[in-house]
Design goal:
single chain; mainly alpha; two-stranded antiparallel ribbon
Length: 69
């Protein structure tokens, strides 16, 4: 989860998922991002006002295994 207002992503995590292609990673990433965003509605601290005020987005990135950051 990232705030577009501040540019900070305090809840960053790295998954252990691996894919055979960039396409497969992107396809899965958008699906997971959508589910994650929809599940925010269940969390009291992530109400619509909080999301709007902080411009919250779900950010993901696809990288090659062993790629340098």
């Amino acid at each position: 989860m990232c705030s577009m207002s501040t540019g900070q992503c305090p809840s960053s995590s790295i998954s252990g998922w691996q894919f055979n292609s960039h396409y497969d990673c992107i396809n899965a990433g958008y699906g997971v991002a959508q589910k994650t965003f929809q599940n925010l509605a269940e969390l009291e601290e992530w109400d619509t006002n909080h999301i709007n005020e902080n411009k919250i987005v779900v950010k993901f990135e696809c990288r090659e295994v062993g790629a340098k950051v």
